[in-house]
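UDP-glucose 4-epimerase: C-alpha coordinates wanted.
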Amino acid sequence: MTWLVTGGAGYIGSHVVRAFQAADIPVVVLDDLSSGFEQFLPAGVPFEHGSVLDAKLVDHTLQEHQVEGVVHVAGFKYAGVSMQRPLHTYEQNVSAMVILMQCMEAVGADKLVFSSSAATFGTPDVDLVTETTPTMPESPYGETKLIGEWMLRAAGRATGLKHTSLRYFNVVGSGSPDLFDTSPHNLFPLVFDMLVRGDNPRINGDDYATPDGTCVRDYIHVADLAEAHVAAARRLAADEPVERVYNLGSGGGTSVREIMDTIREVTGIDFTPDVAPRRAGDPDRIVASGELAARDLDWQMRHTLHEMVSSAWQARQAAGDAYPR
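Answer:
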Protein backbone atom coordinates (compact mmCIF):
# COMPACT_ATOMS: atom_id res chain seq x y z
CA MET A 1 0.00 0.00 0.00
CA THR A 2 1.11 3.53 -0.82
CA TRP A 3 1.27 6.83 1.06
CA LEU A 4 0.38 10.12 -0.61
CA VAL A 5 2.57 13.13 0.14
CA THR A 6 0.76 16.35 -0.75
CA GLY A 7 3.20 19.15 -1.50
CA GLY A 8 5.85 16.50 -2.08
CA ALA A 9 7.76 18.61 -4.61
CA GLY A 10 8.41 21.41 -2.12
CA TYR A 11 11.37 21.95 0.18
CA ILE A 12 9.94 20.04 3.14
CA GLY A 13 7.76 17.66 1.15
CA SER A 14 10.60 16.46 -1.07
CA HIS A 15 12.61 15.53 2.01
CA VAL A 16 9.61 13.63 3.35
CA VAL A 17 9.35 11.75 0.05
CA ARG A 18 13.00 10.72 0.21
CA ALA A 19 12.65 9.65 3.83
CA PHE A 20 9.75 7.39 2.83
CA GLN A 21 11.83 5.96 0.01
CA ALA A 22 14.71 5.26 2.41
CA ALA A 23 12.23 3.41 4.62
CA ASP A 24 11.01 1.34 1.63
CA ILE A 25 7.50 2.75 1.87
CA PRO A 26 5.94 3.47 -1.56
CA VAL A 27 4.82 7.06 -2.11
CA VAL A 28 2.96 9.14 -4.67
CA VAL A 29 3.19 12.93 -4.83
CA LEU A 30 0.46 15.49 -5.49
CA ASP A 31 1.73 19.04 -5.97
CA ASP A 32 0.63 22.09 -7.97
CA LEU A 33 4.26 23.34 -8.19
CA SER A 34 3.27 26.77 -6.91
CA SER A 35 6.31 26.67 -4.65
CA GLY A 36 7.73 23.24 -5.46
CA PHE A 37 9.93 21.94 -8.25
CA GLU A 38 9.49 18.78 -10.26
CA GLN A 39 13.26 18.26 -10.26
CA PHE A 40 13.07 17.76 -6.48
CA LEU A 41 11.22 14.47 -7.09
CA PRO A 42 13.30 11.28 -7.20
CA ALA A 43 13.16 9.24 -10.38
CA GLY A 44 10.37 6.70 -10.38
CA VAL A 45 8.12 8.42 -7.84
CA PRO A 46 4.62 8.78 -9.32
CA PHE A 47 3.64 12.43 -9.64
CA GLU A 48 0.21 13.99 -10.03
CA HIS A 49 0.41 17.65 -11.04
CA GLY A 50 -2.43 19.64 -9.56
CA SER A 51 -4.06 21.17 -6.51
CA VAL A 52 -5.56 19.53 -3.45
CA LEU A 53 -8.53 21.79 -4.19
CA ASP A 54 -9.24 19.60 -7.23
CA ALA A 55 -11.47 16.91 -5.74
CA LYS A 56 -11.52 14.82 -8.93
CA LEU A 57 -7.73 14.74 -9.05
CA VAL A 58 -7.44 13.90 -5.36
CA ASP A 59 -9.98 11.11 -5.70
CA HIS A 60 -8.22 9.75 -8.81
CA THR A 61 -4.83 9.84 -7.07
CA LEU A 62 -6.06 8.02 -3.99
CA GLN A 63 -7.77 5.29 -6.00
CA GLU A 64 -5.25 4.92 -8.82
CA HIS A 65 -2.36 4.41 -6.40
CA GLN A 66 -4.29 2.51 -3.71
CA VAL A 67 -3.35 5.04 -1.07
CA GLU A 68 -3.72 3.90 2.54
CA GLY A 69 -2.51 7.07 4.24
CA VAL A 70 -1.61 10.68 3.57
CA VAL A 71 1.14 12.99 4.77
CA HIS A 72 -0.40 16.43 4.24
CA VAL A 73 2.39 18.94 3.69
CA ALA A 74 0.80 21.10 0.98
CA GLY A 75 -0.43 24.54 1.93
CA PHE A 76 0.18 28.27 1.92
CA LYS A 77 2.94 28.69 4.50
CA TYR A 78 3.77 32.38 4.69
CA ALA A 79 2.46 33.72 7.99
CA GLY A 80 3.28 37.35 7.23
CA VAL A 81 1.73 37.28 3.77
CA SER A 82 -1.35 35.56 5.18
CA MET A 83 -2.16 38.82 7.00
CA GLN A 84 -2.66 40.46 3.57
CA ARG A 85 -4.21 37.40 1.90
CA PRO A 86 -6.41 35.79 4.57
CA LEU A 87 -9.05 34.36 2.23
CA HIS A 88 -6.42 32.84 -0.04
CA THR A 89 -4.77 31.30 3.01
CA TYR A 90 -8.04 29.82 4.26
CA GLU A 91 -8.83 28.43 0.81
CA GLN A 92 -5.43 26.78 0.41
CA ASN A 93 -5.17 25.46 3.96
CA VAL A 94 -8.72 24.80 5.14
CA SER A 95 -10.88 24.30 2.05
CA ALA A 96 -8.23 22.08 0.48
CA MET A 97 -7.94 19.98 3.63
CA VAL A 98 -11.71 19.51 3.77
CA ILE A 99 -11.62 18.19 0.19
CA LEU A 100 -8.67 15.93 0.97
CA MET A 101 -10.37 14.43 4.02
CA GLN A 102 -13.67 13.96 2.20
CA CYS A 103 -11.93 12.09 -0.60
CA MET A 104 -9.99 9.99 1.90
CA GLU A 105 -13.18 9.02 3.70
CA ALA A 106 -14.86 8.13 0.40
CA VAL A 107 -12.12 5.67 -0.61
CA GLY A 108 -11.34 4.32 2.86
CA ALA A 109 -7.90 5.86 3.33
CA ASP A 110 -7.95 6.20 7.11
CA LYS A 111 -4.52 7.52 8.17
CA LEU A 112 -3.28 11.11 8.06
CA VAL A 113 -0.09 12.77 9.29
CA PHE A 114 -0.61 16.52 9.28
CA SER A 115 2.37 18.82 8.87
CA SER A 116 1.12 21.54 11.22
CA SER A 117 3.01 24.49 12.68
CA ALA A 118 4.14 26.10 15.89
CA ALA A 119 2.34 29.19 14.56
CA THR A 120 -0.69 27.66 16.29
CA PHE A 121 0.82 28.90 19.58
CA GLY A 122 1.13 32.55 18.60
CA THR A 123 3.46 34.20 21.10
CA PRO A 124 3.41 31.90 24.12
CA ASP A 125 4.31 33.43 27.47
CA VAL A 126 6.30 30.42 28.69
CA ASP A 127 9.97 29.54 28.77
CA LEU A 128 9.44 26.15 27.10
CA VAL A 129 6.48 25.34 24.84
CA THR A 130 4.82 21.95 25.34
CA GLU A 131 1.82 20.27 23.76
CA THR A 132 -0.37 21.64 26.56
CA THR A 133 0.67 25.27 26.03
CA PRO A 134 -2.45 27.25 25.04
CA THR A 135 -2.88 27.83 21.31
CA MET A 136 -3.44 31.47 20.40
CA PRO A 137 -2.49 31.94 16.73
CA GLU A 138 -1.81 35.50 15.62
CA SER A 139 -2.04 35.12 11.85
CA PRO A 140 -4.49 33.56 9.40
CA TYR A 141 -1.78 31.02 8.65
CA GLY A 142 -1.59 29.92 12.29
CA GLU A 143 -5.40 29.89 12.50
CA THR A 144 -5.69 27.59 9.48
CA LYS A 145 -3.19 25.13 10.91
CA LEU A 146 -5.11 25.00 14.18
CA ILE A 147 -8.38 24.51 12.31
CA GLY A 148 -6.76 21.62 10.44
CA GLU A 149 -5.93 20.00 13.77
CA TRP A 150 -9.52 20.53 14.91
CA MET A 151 -10.87 18.90 11.75
CA LEU A 152 -8.68 15.86 12.30
CA ARG A 153 -9.84 15.52 15.88
CA ALA A 154 -13.49 15.76 14.85
CA ALA A 155 -13.06 13.24 12.03
CA GLY A 156 -11.24 10.89 14.37
CA ARG A 157 -14.21 10.90 16.71
CA ALA A 158 -16.77 10.60 13.93
CA THR A 159 -15.18 8.14 11.51
CA GLY A 160 -12.22 6.59 13.30
CA LEU A 161 -9.63 8.45 11.21
CA LYS A 162 -6.17 7.71 12.57
CA HIS A 163 -4.17 10.91 12.74
CA THR A 164 -1.51 13.00 14.37
CA SER A 165 -0.18 16.52 13.82
CA LEU A 166 3.44 17.65 13.97
CA ARG A 167 4.15 21.20 15.12
CA TYR A 168 7.50 22.81 14.45
CA PHE A 169 9.14 26.23 14.16
CA ASN A 170 12.00 27.02 11.77
CA VAL A 171 13.07 24.33 9.31
CA VAL A 172 16.58 24.69 7.85
CA GLY A 173 19.36 22.79 6.15
CA SER A 174 19.30 20.24 3.36
CA GLY A 175 19.34 16.47 3.28
CA SER A 176 20.79 16.42 -0.24
CA PRO A 177 22.72 18.96 -2.33
CA ASP A 178 19.96 18.95 -4.96
CA LEU A 179 17.26 20.05 -2.49
CA PHE A 180 17.25 23.64 -1.27
CA ASP A 181 15.01 26.14 0.49
CA THR A 182 13.81 28.83 -1.91
CA SER A 183 11.44 30.66 0.43
CA PRO A 184 11.80 34.44 0.23
CA HIS A 185 10.78 34.67 3.89
CA ASN A 186 13.09 32.19 5.66
CA LEU A 187 16.28 33.29 7.44
CA PHE A 188 18.86 31.08 5.75
CA PRO A 189 17.85 31.86 2.13
CA LEU A 190 17.51 35.55 3.00
CA VAL A 191 21.02 35.74 4.44
CA PHE A 192 22.51 33.66 1.63
CA ASP A 193 20.85 35.92 -0.95
CA MET A 194 22.36 38.99 0.68
CA LEU A 195 25.82 37.47 0.83
CA VAL A 196 25.68 36.34 -2.81
CA ARG A 197 24.66 39.86 -3.85
CA GLY A 198 27.38 41.40 -1.73
CA ASP A 199 24.91 42.96 0.68
CA ASN A 200 25.24 42.92 4.44
CA PRO A 201 22.77 40.81 6.46
CA ARG A 202 21.07 42.40 9.41
CA ILE A 203 19.83 41.47 12.84
CA ASN A 204 16.53 42.90 13.99
CA GLY A 205 17.30 44.01 17.53
CA ASP A 206 20.17 43.10 19.84
CA ASP A 207 18.71 44.20 23.17
CA TYR A 208 16.50 41.21 23.97
CA ALA A 209 16.62 39.45 27.34
CA THR A 210 18.79 36.61 26.01
CA PRO A 211 22.46 35.73 26.57
CA ASP A 212 23.71 37.62 23.49
CA GLY A 213 20.84 40.08 23.14
CA THR A 214 19.34 38.54 19.97
CA CYS A 215 16.16 36.48 19.63
CA VAL A 216 16.33 32.78 20.43
CA ARG A 217 14.28 30.38 18.31
CA ASP A 218 13.96 26.68 17.54
CA TYR A 219 15.74 25.58 14.37
CA ILE A 220 15.51 21.98 13.18
CA HIS A 221 17.13 20.22 10.27
CA VAL A 222 14.72 19.35 7.48
CA ALA A 223 15.96 15.75 7.31
CA ASP A 224 15.20 15.28 11.01
CA LEU A 225 11.73 16.69 10.39
CA ALA A 226 11.18 14.28 7.48
CA GLU A 227 12.16 11.29 9.63
CA ALA A 228 9.53 12.30 12.20
CA HIS A 229 6.83 12.22 9.50
CA VAL A 230 7.86 8.70 8.52
CA ALA A 231 7.89 7.56 12.14
CA ALA A 232 4.40 8.98 12.66
CA ALA A 233 3.11 7.25 9.52
CA ARG A 234 4.58 3.95 10.66
CA ARG A 235 2.85 4.18 14.03
CA LEU A 236 -0.47 4.93 12.38
CA ALA A 237 -0.02 2.05 9.92
CA ALA A 238 0.80 -0.31 12.80
CA ASP A 239 -2.24 0.93 14.74
CA GLU A 240 0.05 1.99 17.58
CA PRO A 241 -1.12 4.75 19.93
CA VAL A 242 -0.13 8.32 19.10
CA GLU A 243 -0.74 11.70 20.65
CA ARG A 244 -3.05 14.13 18.87
CA VAL A 245 -0.14 16.56 18.44
CA TYR A 246 3.62 16.46 18.82
CA ASN A 247 6.06 19.35 19.11
CA LEU A 248 9.30 18.85 17.22
CA GLY A 249 11.51 21.13 19.27
CA SER A 250 15.12 21.38 20.34
CA GLY A 251 14.46 22.18 23.97
CA GLY A 252 17.29 24.74 23.88
CA GLY A 253 17.05 27.01 20.87
CA THR A 254 19.58 29.05 18.92
CA SER A 255 20.10 32.81 18.80
CA VAL A 256 20.14 34.85 15.61
CA ARG A 257 23.71 35.95 16.37
CA GLU A 258 24.81 32.33 16.76
CA ILE A 259 23.37 31.64 13.32
CA MET A 260 25.14 34.64 11.80
CA ASP A 261 28.44 33.57 13.35
CA THR A 262 28.03 30.03 11.98
CA ILE A 263 27.12 31.30 8.51
CA ARG A 264 30.27 33.45 8.49
CA GLU A 265 32.35 30.44 9.51
CA VAL A 266 30.77 28.04 6.98
CA THR A 267 30.69 30.35 3.97
CA GLY A 268 34.07 31.92 4.58
CA ILE A 269 32.50 35.29 3.82
CA ASP A 270 33.57 37.82 6.42
CA PHE A 271 30.74 40.10 7.48
CA THR A 272 29.45 41.88 10.55
CA PRO A 273 25.67 42.01 10.47
CA ASP A 274 23.99 45.39 10.71
CA VAL A 275 21.74 45.87 13.70
CA ALA A 276 18.26 47.18 12.84
CA PRO A 277 15.49 48.10 15.27
CA ARG A 278 13.38 45.39 16.79
CA ARG A 279 10.41 44.13 14.82
CA ALA A 280 7.11 44.71 16.58
CA GLY A 281 5.85 41.63 18.37
CA ASP A 282 9.07 39.62 18.30
CA PRO A 283 9.40 37.81 21.65
CA ASP A 284 12.76 37.24 23.31
CA ARG A 285 12.63 33.45 23.13
CA ILE A 286 10.37 30.75 21.70
CA VAL A 287 11.59 27.19 22.16
CA ALA A 288 9.65 23.93 22.29
CA SER A 289 10.16 20.67 24.11
CA GLY A 290 10.38 17.54 21.96
CA GLU A 291 10.01 15.05 24.80
CA LEU A 292 6.75 13.45 23.66
CA ALA A 293 8.04 13.10 20.09
CA ALA A 294 11.26 11.58 21.42
CA ARG A 295 9.23 9.04 23.38
CA ASP A 296 6.95 7.97 20.52
CA LEU A 297 8.66 8.98 17.26
CA ASP A 298 12.33 8.58 18.13
CA TRP A 299 12.61 12.34 17.59
CA GLN A 300 16.14 13.65 17.93
CA MET A 301 18.11 16.68 16.83
CA ARG A 302 20.57 14.61 14.82
CA HIS A 303 22.21 17.60 13.15
CA THR A 304 24.30 20.34 14.76
CA LEU A 305 23.92 24.01 13.89
CA HIS A 306 27.11 23.78 11.84
CA GLU A 307 25.63 20.88 9.86
CA MET A 308 22.38 22.78 9.33
CA VAL A 309 24.19 25.78 7.89
CA SER A 310 26.79 23.84 5.89
CA SER A 311 24.21 21.56 4.26
CA ALA A 312 22.03 24.54 3.32
CA TRP A 313 25.00 26.44 1.89
CA GLN A 314 26.21 23.39 -0.04
CA ALA A 315 22.77 22.98 -1.62
CA ARG A 316 22.60 26.68 -2.48
CA GLN A 317 26.01 26.53 -4.16
CA ALA A 318 25.16 23.31 -6.02
CA ALA A 319 22.01 24.91 -7.43
CA GLY A 320 24.07 27.61 -9.19
CA ASP A 321 22.07 29.31 -11.91
CA ALA A 322 19.17 26.93 -11.30
CA TYR A 323 18.43 28.63 -7.99
CA PRO A 324 15.21 30.67 -8.38
CA ARG A 325 15.72 34.39 -7.90
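The domain at 2-171+219-247 is CATH 3.40.50.720 (Rossmann fold). The longest helix spans residues 86-107.

Cheers.
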